[in-house]
Amino acid sequence: MTAVFPGSFDPITSGHMDVLTRASRMFDQVTMTVMHNARKQGKNLFTLEERLHILRAATAHLPNVSVDSFSGLLVDYVAQLNAPPYKAVIIRGLRAVSDFEYELQIAHLNRQIGEAETVFIMAATRWSFVSSSMVKEIASYGGDISEMVPRVSADALKTKFAEAYAERAVNQG
Asked: Which one of the listed residues 24, 51, 95, 136 is annotated catalytic?
């Protein structure tokens, strides 16, 4: 069975990697799909191409994981994968109860409009506080994000926020 793990992944975090690694052991194939969200246009730190590059590098060690992008409804993407003999489900990671309430609504809608099933995977407790938004904020001040993201994400963030990291190094040195 195939699983689709959608998101903006701006950038991918250690929590995403935890959910993805566990999903890769549960499903024959997992496709990480960077969704184009018109409402977030211009609000992402990384371009689509940068995010795809980061994801491919971060997941290279997982042989049954592929990376793709899609614009439109997730259920339409999943339907493309459901052409016989394939069957796909949507993977969603959960960190807290507040995630569950939002994700439950989305899962019900995806089931209603596209007959797409959703499987929830709880992030490990150590990653329950990590979000892409918080990681970007910490990095924007030159903070240590090395445990919160895969190395390729950390390197990309340090490049984006090079001035903040240089300034912090001067202030601490």
From this structure: 95
Report angle CA 21, 129, 8 to the nearest 5 degrees.
Answer: 60
Distance between CA 71 and CA 65 in Å, rounded?
A: 20
pLDDT digits (tens, 9 = 90+) for 141-170: 999 999 999 999 999 999 999 999 898 888
**39 labelled ligand-binding:** no
Per-residue 3-state assignment (H helix, E strand, C coil) for 94-121: ECCHHHHHHHHHHHHHHHHHHCCCEEEE
Mean pLDDT score of the chain: 92
Q: Two tokens at 2? A: 């195939």
ω into residue 150 within 30 of 0, thus cis?
no
Between CA 65 and CA 56 the distance in angstroms is 9
β-strand pairing of 88-94 with 29-36: unpaired
51 assigned ligand-binding residue: no
The CATH superfamily of 2-128 is HUPs (3.40.50.620)
